[in-house]
């Protein structure tokens, strides 16, 4: 396994561990776990891109937009208590940043 794949797999596992240890409602935790498993997994993202190439002239923009929308949908499952913590808002921003960095790496690889 190449070093960059290992790096992004480690990011995914770190995010999942952090979600597990945060004080979140069960529903929101489940949705965040689903998002991380879908968008921070380099194999899943690469597979999605290869499928999107058949249907879209710019699969990278399409998956980026899908990831952003899915994260927004995930936020709809958050309770007021979940959203009152600024730590979770910062964490969600970092999740999107990690996704965009991985997407950029996949695009240039």
Description:
With 109 residues, the chain is mainly α. It has one domain. The chain is 81% helix and 0% strand. It contains six helices and no strands. The protein has helices at residues 3-21, 26-39, 42-52, 59-75, 80-83, 86-108. The longest helix has 23 residues, at 86-108. The radius of gyration is 14 Å and the shape is globular. The two termini are 14 Å apart. The mean pLDDT is 93.
Overall average residue pLDDT: 93
Q: Distance between termini?
A: 14 Å
Q: How many strands?
A: 0
Query: What fraction of residues sit in β-strands?
Result: under 5%
Number of domains: 1
Overall shape: globular
H/I helix tally: 6
Output the structural class.
mainly alpha
Q: Radius of gyration, rounded?
A: 14 Å
The low-pLDDT segments are none
User: What's the helix-strand series?
Assistant: HHHHHH
Helical content (DSSP H or I, runs of 4+):
over 70%
Largest sheet: none
Topology summary:
Blueprint: H1 3-21, H2 26-39, H3 42-52, H4 59-75, H5 80-83, H6 86-108
Question: How would you summarize this macromolecular structure in one to three sentences?
Answer:
The chain has 109 residues and is mostly helical. It has helices at residues 3-21, 26-39, 42-52, 59-75, 80-83, 86-108.
Q: Which structural traits does this protein have?
A:
single chain, mainly alpha, 109 residues, globular, 0% strand
């Amino acid at each position: 396994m190449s070093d960059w794949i290992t790096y992004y797999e480690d990011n995914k596992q770190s995010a999942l561990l952090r979600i597990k240890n945060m004080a979140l409602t069960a529903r929101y935790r489940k949705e965040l776990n689903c998002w991380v498993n879908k968008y921070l997994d380099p194999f899943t993202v690469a597979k999605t891109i290869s499928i999107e190439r058949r249907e879209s002239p710019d699969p990278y923009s399409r998956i980026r937009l899908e990831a952003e929308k899915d994260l927004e949908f995930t936020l709809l499952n958050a309770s007021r208590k979940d959203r009152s913590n600024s730590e979770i808002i910062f964490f969600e921003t970092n999740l999107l940043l990690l996704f965009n960095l991985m997407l950029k790496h996949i695009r240039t690889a």
